Amino acid sequence: MATTAHQPVRTCIGCRRRVARNDLLRVVAIGKDNTRTVTVDVRRRLAGRGAWLHPDRSCLAIAVKRKAFNRAFKSAVDVSDVQSYFNAADIAGPSGGSMTTVQSESGSEMKMETR
Ligand SMILES: [Zn+2]
Question: Does residue 56 fall inside a structural domain?
Fold first, then answer.
């Protein structure tokens, strides 16, 4: 019955669906054990333990909420890199590929003084 070609299948750590690896983003934990950062392995060439996630904000949100990253990498990890990747990339639409620089509207700078 199965007509899909035998391509690798991975489980999304967000929605836990098993899908073709090509449909998922690879994320890898880098850094030392107690300060590991999860980063998106865009080229899928980084070494190390990897996990898989749909390029979908809801899957990311579920994964963060369930601490699926911590479980996948067996330690506490910082996922802010992945979140900023999702924010920077136009996940919903077609990939444009170019980065846009954010320009401040006013030249004034706020200075915070801490004591
Ligand atoms: Zn998913």
Answer: yes
The domain tally of the chain equals 1
DSSP string, the chain: ---S----EEE-TTT--EEEGGGSEEEEEES-TTSEEEEE-TTS---S-EEEE-S-HHHHHHHHHTTHHHHHHTS-EE-HHHHHHHHHTTSSS-----------SSS--------
Write out pLDDT tens, residues 18-51. 999 999 999 999 988 778 999 999 998 998 889 9
97 Cα: distance to centroid of ligand 1 (angstroms): 23
For residue 103, how far is its CA from the centre of ligand 1 (angstroms)? 33
Range of the domain at 87: 9-113
- Alpha carbon of 12 to ligand 1 centroid (Å): 5
pTM of the model: 0.71
Q: Is residue 76 scored above 50 in pLDDT?
A: yes
4, part of any domain: no
Query: Is 94 contained in some domain?
Result: yes
